[in-house]
## 1
Amino acid sequence: MNENRSTIHWSELPADELARFWQDVDAGTQDNFLLSSVKKQTRRTRGNHSTKAKCEFPVWCRPAHYKKLSGELGHAYNLLVMFDKVTGRPRLRICISRHPLYVAGRRKAGRKYGFRPERQRLLDALWPLLISFCDGGKHTVGMCISRLAKELSAKDAKGNVIPETEVTVSRLSRLIEEQVRFGVLGLAEERTWDRDSRSWLPVYVYITPAGFQMLGVDMEKLQKEQDKKLRLSAERERLIREGAMSEHDEITPHKARQCWSGQKRRDALTYRRKKGAERKRANNLIKLPADERLHIMEKWVYKTLPHDEAYWCTPERLTQLAVQHLYQLDLALSPPD
């Protein structure tokens, strides 16, 4: 073999030289057939940042002052979490990440191998949280993904999230997307982009029947409890008031989730538009002197007050309301001596 070919892997040789190569191997005169191929030259370099998760050991259990869950939801939570009499603290009873469903549905979910230890621990801590805030009728989780990440994150003595050891929203979003592919979770509504704020609207999930079966609950009892909750749900009462259904009709879980997620989306849009208007008003007022700033805010407060309240509003009360709104806009208006 040519010397210039000695550093080339045998799989990259032309057909004629490859035949001679294997002839030399059979004859015992070729001994470099185990050489690895030369890495291709590239400008890509690995960064110096750490790729491990910030929160490697997330833990979540229901606080002691929370009301105990009833019915099959409480049974599902007790299957996941137990009270340790030795330590006097709750701990995980089972590791749901090792359930056979995650092995049988691995290919369908787009996975080739099992979960890494960091993902296993995050998944084990997530399910008690999902069950704890699951609605009995719609089976929706009452927290968006960012709120779930905040609950799972480690906190200091004041209850604030520690940035160095937090569960990031992106990490939890990838995990929940994978759970949706496994079929144990579902999205209450497709992700929607808010053009005004240039960000995604909050995403809510619900637990599917496959998820409850994985937890080992009695599906017949769960169905009876769900029907009872749906008959008393606020979504059914609202649809009856709007005339969309009669009092004798039954609402389906899918319809209830649609109404609930639609209301959540409207609330999020209203809140964002309100905050956007406040930011715009603050940007316009911050450029003005303090006296003119207060005068403009008084005019705005008087215009937005209800008619009966505006009729009896005194100038002192109007100034007080204007100062309060300016403080809310973070305009640093100095308080009176």
## 2
Amino acid sequence: MSWQAYVDSLTGPDSSGNKTIEDAAICGLASGAESIWASSPGLSSLTADQIKKLAGNSSALRECGPSIGEMKCMLLTDDSENPSSYCMHLKASKNHGGFNICVGKAKTAMVIAKGKDGTAGNQVSTRVFPIVKYLRDAGY
């Protein structure tokens, strides 16, 4: 499956037929080569610096929340080391819609998903977790 197919799967309907993810991206985390591997249009403006910050130590994100593309965000919880989640849970500022965002980290890849308006954070992370788990198990 291509990287874009993973993004398309995330932004498509879930098993209940609901579309809960508005935008998604898969990024590479290799030091010095942080980049977008595939994305939907709403996350295509992610920068290498933003990817680096999201991949780094989350304690720095607690004081000054990260930006994802044009959205300023706040870190809610970091469950990226929890094997039942592997995600950081973020919320976009009210000026940027207040969307729930999930950032799942594998060894060399990161999955970012932005929920649709009104989508709860757990609905976003439920979609991201299987892909992150698969990537981790496959060595990514």
